[in-house]
Amino acid sequence: MTVFYNANIFNGKDTEVMQNQWFEVADGKFKQIGVGNVPASIDEKKVNLQGKFVMPGLINAHTHMMMNPVTNKLEYLTEAEVTVTALKNLRDLIGSGVTYIRDCGCAFNVDIKLKKLRDQLDLVIPEIVASGRPMSMTGGHGDFREDEDGNINWSYLVDSPDEMRKSVRTAFKEGADNIKVMATGGVMSAGDNVNDTALTMAEMKVAVEEAHDKSKRVAAHAQGNKGIGNALKAGVDSIEHGIYVDEKQAEFMKENNVYLVPTLNAAASISKYGRDSLPAHMTRKNDLVKHDFFEHVAMAIQKGVKVVVGTDAGTPFNSFKTGTWEEMELLVNKAGATPTQALFGATKYAAELLNITEGYGSIESGKFADFLVLDQDPTQYITAVAQTDKQVFKKGVQIK
């Protein structure tokens, strides 16, 4: 057991930093939390945090651990290559302060397999809400060929409600925690456009029905306005990207507790680093939507939609090391969020979306002791989370 004292705590649920706090960690969890001097009756190892700032470990709610953001190779990946890439990316994430992720699409269900192996092999990687292979229509955003011979698809290809039901049930049998559906085209896929609709509302309704019957969630890749509307009518739990979300849709999302995971850093990274190296269809589509993207996310924040931090990490030049911080800075500097709103997006709101609030997302007695120690107050300076030499604790054990 260890007592940390002389700390200023952003606990992930209150807007104010709690000053001059102490907290006890035992068996990987937060125990007592108090203010002022540590009671004399507590005779344990004591660590003076010297007035530094403590916050919950970051949650990144939209990653693709299988992808290499430098090579940008999407097809003909073998399972071995996907696994090696994923392990490197996961280590980069936890080193950056991300202690929990939701992966939103992984070939060969490697995210599911690594989740199962994490504790068995004592891997120093974030905990994982795994989606496994996503749901895509034939020829849609997600129809990518994998393995050396191209005979394995990144997605489950579904072209009817019955095929969706079979695929979702298969995904859950394989161990998926979350279902990812492709409601529209996207920037990275060559054969469609952002405004193209993909899976039908009827198909997505089946996914939602199957998932909600098992207390699971459905995330919808939805960029164009009509596809966002279809996904919302189908009852999904989160809109991923949401480039052309409109005011009525934002109001619906607020009223029905549907989360928005914008992944602004995906667009920003392509624009900043990819102009001379990426396929023309990616840069062309990205240029067309980038301004509207920031504008519509800003509107959603103003409307009170719960905006969750997710980066689409693994997409071109979208780093696992720095992307989570960059996403939070974009939310503040480009979309008008306050630092506290951005912090909630990586703690409280993210934990709600991932359905892990019982143990994560805030610093409270009884929850797992995932926390960061920072030099500056993140509620005043969102750049505080980007501190490269910050301390990172996972279940009370310092890993950096």
Automatic annotation (TrEMBL):
Its EC number is 3.4.13.9. GO terms for molecular function: hydrolase activity, acting on carbon-nitrogen (but not peptide) bonds; proline dipeptidase activity. The keyword Metal-binding does not apply. The keyword Lipid metabolism does not apply. Residues 53-396 form the Amidohydrolase-related domain. Gene3D superfamilies: Metal-dependent hydrolases (3.20.20.140), Urease, subunit C, domain 1 (2.30.40.10). Keywords: Dipeptidase, Hydrolase, Protease. This is Prolidase. The lineage of its organism: Bacteria, Bacillati, Bacillota, Bacilli, Lactobacillales.
